[in-house]
Write the structure tokens for this entry.
Amino acid sequence: MTVLQFKELPSRKKKITVLRTGSFLCERKRGLLRTMLYQVDGYYVEIWFLRFGREALWYHAFDNTQALQPYLKQIDISGLLGNLSLQNNP
């Protein structure tokens, strides 16, 4: 399924598609909202919730990496960088 086909689905089918074929990647919280990011068939889907809610408010599907920036900022790679410097110094 393409990102355009996903966008055409009703909310219930979007939920089923993400749960059956998606891979959970990350979660982020902003104010009263919580966003869960999934990778589905070569594109990404954000599911937006009220922070303490269980029902999805909306789905945002995209296939560009620019929309991943808020998630990439959360990743701490300092441990990896420390390991690299140890390996380069005999």
Notes: The first helix runs from residue 3 to 8.
